[in-house]
Amino acid sequence: MQKPMEDMQNLNYGIIGNCRSAALISQTGSIDWLCLPKFDSPSVFAKILDREKGGSFEFIFDDSYSLSQSYICRTNILVTKVRNPDHEFEIVDFMPRYIEESGTHYVPPDIIRYIKYQKGKPAFRIKYNPCLEYAKYPTKTIVNKDYIKSYTTKGPYDSVYLYTDLDKKKVLNGELLEITGDAYFLLSYNQKILTQTVDREYLKLQRTKVYWLNWSERTKLYGRYNDEILRSALVLKLLSYDNSGAILAAVTTSLPETPGDIRNWDYRFCWLRDSSMVIKVMSELGHSHLARRYLNFIRQIIPDKDEKIQIMYGINGERTLTEQKLDHFAGYKNSKPVRIGNDAYKQKQNDIFGILMDAIYQQFNLFDVSLENSEDLWTITRSIVKMVGNNWKKPDRGIWEIRKKQQHFTFSKVLCWVAIDRAIKISRIIKQHGLMNEWEKLKEIIRKDVFEKAWNKKLKAFTQVYHSSDLDASVLLMEPFGFIGATDPRYISTVKAIRKHLSHNGLLYRYKNMDDFGIPSSAFVICTFWLINSLHKIGEKKEAEKLFDQMLTYSNHLGLYSEDIDFDNKQLLGNFPQAYSHLALIETAINLSGGTLSPEGKLRQIFVLRKS
Questions:
Q1: Distances (CA, A) of 121 to 2, 69, 84, 393, 406
Q2: Are the C-beta atoms of residues 374 and 358 closer than 8 Å to each other?
Q3: What confidence score (pLDDT) does residue 604 get?
Q4: With a cut of 70, which residues of the chain have pLDDT below it?
Q5: What is the predicted pLDDT for the residue at 172?
Q6: Cβ of 73: how many Cβ atoms within 10 Å?
Q7: 421 vs 444: CA distance, rounded Å
Q8: Which domains are seen in the chain, by residue range?
Q9: How far apart are the C-alpha atoms of 12 and 26, rounded to whole Å?
Q10: How far is CA 200 from the centre of its chain?
């Protein structure tokens, strides 16, 4: 027997999770990436980073079987259908998440692989090969009466348990298994107290399905693109961490921007840059609870007066994210190094001031804020304005986290302006006018500085850095952040210049000039969405819709996106699935729909408001 359809040429993975951790499952039903018990824990399976050493949990079929894969509608439950003319079954993969009678969420560090029998006598083998602690040490696996246990024999102790109603020895030995009814596998970080049965796993499946259906029901319906919006929203929910409210950039580490390149980073952390878009988009969709929890996470990690604000934090608010290399791993498509941790947390990026202030302003603007929280946030606001005053004239690393050279990045200057603009708006909301005149002056000084030094008369565009001829997709955000209007001739010509010089094969470079590692060779997904939004804003609506519909064809088979896309073959590249990409997709889809709810969406909102 052979395992068919092995395809790691593209990121043809589905994601399952329960807001505690997540797993990536290939089109053939192989779990190739899983960290337990949390998103940022060492890996249990890491075949995606090393086909030989990483470890996996695979189903192996003969060549007569065909496979197809999809999510149960409006859920994060993944179904891999396996069939030939005579035999058929489904692998239903999920991580349990549902509300118990006590009102608390049940989110164990478990994966359930429910085998749903359809017809005949399907036969398959299992390749079960946990390689704990990033496979740095040997993992021993033994069969017990109640479970299969895997544990490390050197280094830090770690272990996982596999429960099943199939023959455990045959499972572990890779022998042929034949089924004539439903069966299950339950992989857990914890030893189970209750006896596990197929009926118990089926109940967890149904409860988890109900949870996701209820969550999806609260998502607004627009005139168009609702399937794409909902799938992206479900991905973003999976990237949220229950314990703290943090939202991960992605669930993976070291998937390269370009195969064979060294731009390989760990994205299992929370970048504050995503914050204002998370709050805006998820609130717009009707998921204000997720937005509130994320705002609470941000409020708790913001340091005391005059302390350094980091660009990123661990999912529990950790400040030190020391970078290490896993030299024993070959890397995705042999792209080394494989990194855990991310030294970008040390970087100075002045745009973070504007990002934070925009998030704080949205809290005042969208939600009720208690007196205590208002006073805390007002103190933070005044501290950030002081930091902007001390830093806005200084160079930094910019939005793209250039590691070697600090420069006067236009986007960073614009976001410093945003910080002051939002501080002024907050002061009006809470009726604290004492500093407004001083802040208005600083705001105007920054604005004039950008117009004088970032504008290139020859290109008729705002450039990446001051007094430069290099273009950068990030300046497209000048309009969404309110720095310049969509009808301003300077913005219109900037959009057109960026499209002309940075577009390639229907996708967009973030920039084309040399950076730490040479010239970028793949398209940033979010940059193309920025361009589409900008074209729509300046009146080129048909072209925007054409590009958006084209972008939708570049997702994988389940509608998921990574960070990058290859310009030529359109393969997904970079860490996966990428929060920023899915946030931008939702925002773009809403904008192209005119922000108008469908008739069904309007009715649904009436019922949602009545329930609340």
A1: 18, 21, 11, 71, 64
A2: no
A3: 61
A4: 1-9, 304-307, 403, 514-519, 598, 600-612
A5: 97
A6: 12
A7: 10
A8: 13-217 (2.70.98.50)
A9: 6
A10: 31
